[in-house]
Write a structure and sequence with these properties.
Blueprint (H helix, E strand, L loop, with lengths): L7 H18 L9 H14 L7 E5 L2 H10 L8 H23 L2 H18 L1 H15 L6 H6 L13 E2 L3 H12 L6 H14 L4 E5 L2 E5 L4 E2 L1 E2 L2 E2 L7 E2 L5 E2 L1 E2 L2 E2 L2 H5 L7 H6 L3 H11 L1 H5 L3 E5 L6 H5 L3 E4 L1 H4 L5 E6 L6 E5 L7 H8 L12
Parallel strand pairs: 1-4
Antiparallel strand pairs: 2-3, 3-4, 5-8, 6-7, 8-9, 10-11, 12-13, 13-14, 14-15
Amino acid sequence: MRIDKLTKEQESELLEFREHCLSVGLSTTRINKNIDEHRKEVDLIYKDFLNLEPPMIWYVDSPLMLNLVINILPIIDQNLNQKLNQNLWQKLGQNLGQNLGQNLNQNLDQNLRQNLWQNLSQNLWQNLGQKLDQNLDQNLRQNLDQNLNQKLESIKLKNFHNIYWGNTDIYWIAYYMFPMKIGIKYKENEIKLLNTIYDLTKKVGFIWYFKGICFICDRSLFINKKGVQLHHDSEPAISYSDGYSVWCLNGVNVPRYLVETPKEKLDIDFFKTEKNADVRAEFIRKYGIERMVGLGKVIETVENHENDWFNKSEYQLIDMGSIYGRKYAPHLKMKNLTTGIYHLEGVDPSCRTVEQALKWRAKGKEINIKSIK
């Protein structure tokens, strides 16, 4: 059965299904920590995907707790996510993708991919799952109580197990599920596995697969967003019942200090020591670009330049030597024309003009940029 175009009723159903999946991915409802609630789906995944015996099920309150448990208990050392991922695409992804290619008009396939895979992925995985990955990888010890942190100093931490599945993965599940709703036929075993993953996804926060044991994580207590991006000006963007939290400004993982400190009390020393360009940009956004510029001395301002790009980017070369205790510390101020965010980046002390600073940032290459219309 080949489908070339959605009916009006199917188009409406597509949007309803997308909103349903988005609600699953952003749900903060407590999960039912009853083994019988998850046993059927977990056992089938271990049997059909991993060819293993049913595991024990261990519930955790957050991704942080999972990492603590697997680092403290040395017997938990065989992460099955890579194997599971390989089996998934061998048994589902490749076959289902080929099936859709044969049975959906190319334009219709692109429509479904944009409405389900790309839209939900942007809302869920790119702005939720990845932020948790980054936060755990970069800030595990910062999220621990000081006393617990000291006790863990003697423990050699393993690699973090941040590759998990869960409700944020519903974006790709939705892409394959919806065609079934409009008449695309899959093989019986493919339908069974796809439905199993879909059913489990609706009942968990995150889930990790190890040999002999499966960890299921509760959902977060709340998720704060601005548009599709994780954001809150004064509290965590995501927080779990055990206290593990992630702080974000405009979709950028930032230290707790930057979120909870009022802008008038922000210390410029934070900016001086922070290495991450995105975090520095968020500091500038909160601190105020004019206030930042006021701490230095303007060396050159680009005005009425023949190249529109130079004018719109609001380039300035600013000596920030006063905040670093140096005679001369040139920084290039610029506006990101895509995001509207201002950056203030240090450049080589040899730079005395904006064009020299731009050339230095381009590693000596000549700047040749067409005007923006």
